[in-house]
Design a protein that fits this description.
With 149 residues, this protein is α/β, with parallel strands linked by helices. Helix 1 crosses helix 2. It is globular.
């Protein structure tokens, strides 16, 4: 497990931008953390790194936001509102899709999650954030290793 300390939103954005340079179609990133921890800030950095050309916002009320104009498509799922709900919404198309899929609150849609992913957990730590990154499966592990460099 890789542990990183972020002292600012800019640090978290930069980490997302670095991660974007490693992503390929089919990659899945699970984002965990309390409300306001920095999950969307990380995703905004990914969007910048992929040159998506749009401001990345949390899709809390939409559940899914798609960005098609970057280097590769980016799918941003916020499953918070799906807790205890029917999850048969067709999200598998995006999770298994032709871009990178970032999922906030992934535990709420756990039956849809793949076996190979990058897990990022963000914790409030004083004024900053502690970010724990763990790759699961061959591709997830390769992404974790890429972020160590």
């Amino acid at each position: 497990m890789l542990k990183i300390y972020s002292s600012s939103k800019e640090d978290t954005l930069a980490l997302g931008e670095k991660a974007a340079s490693l992503f390929a179609p089919g990659d899945v990133v699970l984002l965990r953390g309390d409300l306001g921890a920095g999950k969307t800030a990380f995703t905004s950095g990914v969007g910048k790194g992929l040159n998506c050309g749009e401001d990345v916002i949390s899709p809390t009320f939409n559940i899914l936001k798609c960005y098609f104009h970057g280097t590769i498509p980016m799918y941003h799922i916020d499953a918070y509102r799906l807790d205890g709900q029917n999850i048969e919404l067709g999200l598998e198309e995006f999770i298994e899709g032709d871009g990178v899929c970032l999922i906030e609150w992934p535990d709420y849609i756990s039956p849809l999650l793949p076996d190979d992913y990058l897990s990022i957990s963000i914790f409030h730590d004083g004024e900053g954030r502690r970010i724990e990154i763990e790759g699961v499966g061959p591709r997830g592990t390769a992404l974790e290793e890429g972020l160590r460099k």
